[in-house]
Design brief:
The chain has a single domain, classed as 2-Layer Sandwich (Transcription Regulator spoIIAA), CATH 3.30.750.24. The relative contact order is 0.18. The chain has a five-stranded mixed β-sheet, with helices on both faces. Helix content is about 45%, strand content about 30%. The longest helix is centred in the middle third of the chain and has 16 residues. The protein is globular and about 30 Å long. Helix 1 packs parallel to helix 2. By secondary structure, it is of the alpha/beta class.
């Protein structure tokens, strides 16, 4: 998994693509932890190109959410495909994480601080 992190007005956008599973979850987690170590506090996980997420992938998202809550940061998950959204819903993630239908909606929320 090749992750090209982007910065949008102080929001760190992490686009995830393909499959987020046991084979590459550590790569995604490493990218997030590196950005957090650099002092980034506002994150948008862009799922628009992600077709599949396993329990290992969900763990990466949960670790990110917990670390950001502890540091008063913020995470929004955006653009989930139906299959990925269904996994989030079944695991209860849609009730504990901030979600947005589009990348633009997520960026607006993060930039507004709301």
């Amino acid at each position: 998994m090749n992750i090209q992190v982007e910065d949008w007005n102080g929001v760190t956008v992490i686009p995830l693509e393909g499959r987020l599973d046991g084979n590459n979850a550590s790569v995604a987690e490493g990218v997030f932890l590196q950005q957090l170590a650099e002092g980034k506090q506002r994150f948008l996980f862009d799922f628009s190109e992600l077709q599949y997420i396993s329990s290992a992938g969900l763990r990466v998202i949960l670790v990110a959410a917990k670390k950001l809550r502890a540091s008063k940061g913020r995470l929004i998950c955006a653009c989930l495909a139906e299959q990925v959204y269904d996994v989030f819903e079944m695991s209860g993630f849609t009730t504990i994480l901030e979600m947005a239908a589009t990348k633009e909606e997520a960026l607006e929320k993060l930039e507004a601080g709301a």
